[in-house]
Every structure is written in C-alpha cells, then in structure tokens.
Amino acid sequence: MEIAVLLFDGLTTLDAVGPIEVIGRLPQADVKFVAKRKGELRASPRSSGLGLIADYALSEVTRADILVVPGGPKTQALCDDPEVIGWVQATHRTTTWTTSVCTGSLILGAAGLLRGLRATSHWQALERLAEYGAIPSSERVIVQGKIITSAGVSSGIDMALRLVALVAGETFAKATQLQIEYDPQPPYDVGCVTKAPAEIIAFAKAAAPLR
Question: The CATH number of the domain where 67 resides is what?
Fold first, then answer.
C-alpha cells in the first residue's frame, strides 16, 4: 500500500506526522515523503521548525493508494504552484483515498478536486474553500467519496483513524487508537472555534494569523 505524503517548507509538523503515525501502521504500508526537491525541508517555525526529509521528488512518485496533503502557513504558495497542483491532480487519479489536513484542503481545492463537495479546513481558512467551488463545513472530518478532509492540525489524527477503519475495519482502527494511546483530555474546552470566547479567538488570530 503506497502512501504519499506531500512535504513543503513551512508546513505544520503535526499535519504530516500525526496522520502517518496512524496510517503507517496499516499492513504493508509503504510511506513515501515527497516534495518538489529531495532533501530537508523545514516545518513552520510556528509549529516546530523541525527538519523533515523528502526521499522522493514529485517526478519520482507517479501513483499512490493514499495521498496525504498537510497544511501550514505557506499553503498559498503551493496553491499557486502549477508543478505541485499538477502532481496532486495526477496522483489523485490513481488513489483509493485522497486526504488533507488543515489548510491542505485549499491545495485540493486549487487542484479542482473539491467542486460541489462538502469540505473542511482550519477555522481561519474555512470560508476560502468556497473560492474553489467547495461547500465549507466546520465538521472535524468529512468523507466525500474517496476524498477525506479534516479541520485544523490535531484533527488529522481523527481523520487517519477514520481512514484506517475504512481500509482495515473498526477493530484494527480501535487497536491502533489504543496502541498510540490517543485519549485526548485537554485542560481547556476551547479547541473548536464554536466553543472559544471572542477574546480567545481574537488573541489566536493576532498571535498566529493565517497567511
């Protein structure tokens, strides 16, 4: 099972690493980190600045069973990059599942994959999905045919568990959740924009504006 993960400078670390921690446990999973150029790319300093290694250039991965497109502050540059968009379009034609995390859904939108479909994204980018003909929804994970979009950052783990259930069944997905001990118990109940008070929303926007 070939799993292609798109990497780029300025991505959000957990958008890529979170889902792969889950999906990579599927039987016979072959995870390939792909970028415009091989070598090290740097995640957004906002999320970690972690160096991630792309083992393959776009031209070296022409198909995938699962495509994972993360997001991050530099997503817009990819939306305007014909080489990346062309690769996403071509790879999507081969996939069983095409997925996104956070603003990665904007890349799917720019590739023309979300027209007429419900889709989600980071709450600060949600309404931008309409620019690509999608129907924005604040749901945490949305399955539309073979396309699965998820909301901001941490929701990629939820998306991946949903995907594992679709591929390998609920028992395998539940066992995977237990293996990674994914049992969120956050100290605050403000993890969704509909739950957060106005002053917290304003502070979050000011501290980390979406570019």
Answer: 3.40.50.880
Query: Rg of the Cα trace of the chain?
Result: 16
Known catalytic residue: 79? no
**Residue 52 backbone dihedrals phi, psi, to 5 degrees:** -120, 145
Q: Which of 34, 35, 102, 159 is catalytic?
A: 102
Give me the domain span that covers residue 118.
2-182
Report field, pTM of the whole predicted structure over 0.90: yes
Q: Is residue 210 part of a domain?
A: no
- pLDDT tens digit sequence for 6-47: 999 999 999 999 999 999 999 999 999 999 999 999 999 988
Number of domains in the chain: 1
The position carrying tokens 């390998």 is 168
Q: Is 126 left (phi over 0), alpha (psi -120 to 50) or beta?
A: alpha
CB 137 within 8 A of CB 147: no
Q: Which residues pair with 53 in a beta bridge?
A: 40
Asked if 110 contacts 85 with a C-beta cutoff of 8 angstroms, the reply is yes
pLDDT in tens, 97-120: 999 999 999 999 999 999 999 999
What span, in angstroms and rounded, lies between the C-alpha atoms of 46 and 1? Answer: 32
